Amino acid sequence: AQKITQTQPGMFVQEKEAVTLDCTYDTSDPSYGLFWYKQPSSGEMIFLIYQGSYDQQNATEGRYSLNFQKARKSANLVISASQLGDSAMYFCAMREGRGTGNQFYFGTGTSLTVIP
Amino acid sequence: NAGVTQTPKFQVLKTGQSMTLQCAQDMNHEYMSWYRQDPGMGLRLIHYSVGAGITDQGEVPNGYNVSRSTTEDFPLRLLSAAPSQTSVYFCATSYSQRRQPQHFGDGTRLSIL
């Protein structure tokens, strides 16, 4: 089974509107971390936001927030007030607290296009 | 503070040639890893290391070797390049705790003819 599933290959959003990028995960480890990365067309990977499995509050970083629903094993990224510079690939990732080497698992990504 | 440095940025090889992709970090991170990125497939883990002298296989290790003799360096070796290894390769490093994100290098774009 896939550890991280991103079901939206491509998304479009109007500038200044909010958008939600979906991510579901699969783990039996009670201790894990969830991450979102942005990859613009220039290719670099940029860390956006982190959510821990034991964190009581949903994580927020500026215009980014993480809608964490633990029982549903989902960790959706919400981008508020979209800007043209938000157009990029977005990857969800998980890191388990135990198991082999604390390795990261990545989803296949969602391509976001912000329309002026 | 250079962070994660990958070299080269671009490389073209012929089938059967060997080469080494270099990755160096100056953040004293225990965890280092190599990914390949192909269209529609996200990032797939090739090999990773949790410390000097310790390496392990990821999802797609065939055709690649790694070693970790120092904390700073984690080279990836292609033993006999094949066209299927044409990809963008990323090195990423982090502290070992689960809260710690990975820091990525700028990537190496590799073409095998």
Q: What secondary-structure arrangement, pairings included, does this model have?
A:
The complex is a heterodimer of chains A (116) and B (113).
Chain A: E1 4-5, E2 10-14, E3 19-21, E4 24-25, E5 32-39, E6 46-52, E7 60-61, E8 64-69, E9 74-79, E10 88-96, E11 104-106, E12 110-115
Parallel strand pairs in A: 2-12
Antiparallel strand pairs in A: 1-4, 3-9, 5-6, 5-10, 7-8, 8-9, 10-11, 10-12
Chain B: E1 4-7, E2 10-13, E3 19-25, E4 31-37, E5 43-51, E6 54-57, E7 64-66, E8 76-78, E9 87-94, E10 103-104, E11 108-112
Parallel strand pairs in B: 2-11
Antiparallel strand pairs in B: 1-3, 3-8, 4-5, 4-9, 5-6, 7-8, 9-10, 9-11
Q: What can you see in these coordinates?
A:
The complex is a heterodimer of chains A (116) and B (113). Chain A has 116 residues and is mainly β. Chain A has strands at 4-5, 10-14, 19-21, 24-25, 32-39, 46-52, 60-61, 64-69, 74-79, 88-96, 104-106, 110-115. In chain A, the strands form three sheets. In chain A, strands 2, 5, 6, 10, 11 and 12 form a six-stranded mixed β-sheet that branches. The model of chain A has no long low-confidence stretch (mean pLDDT 93). By secondary structure, chain B is mostly beta strands. In chain B, 0% of the residues lie in helices and 50% in strands. Chain B is built from no helices and eleven strands. In chain B, strands 2, 4, 5, 6, 9, 10 and 11 form a seven-stranded mixed β-sheet that branches. A four-stranded antiparallel β-sheet of chain B has the order 1-3-8-7, with no helix packed on it. The relative contact order of chain B is 0.33. The model of chain B has no long low-confidence stretch (mean pLDDT 93). At the A-B interface, strand 5, strand 6, strand 10 and strand 11 of A face strand 4, strand 5, strand 9 and strand 10 of B.
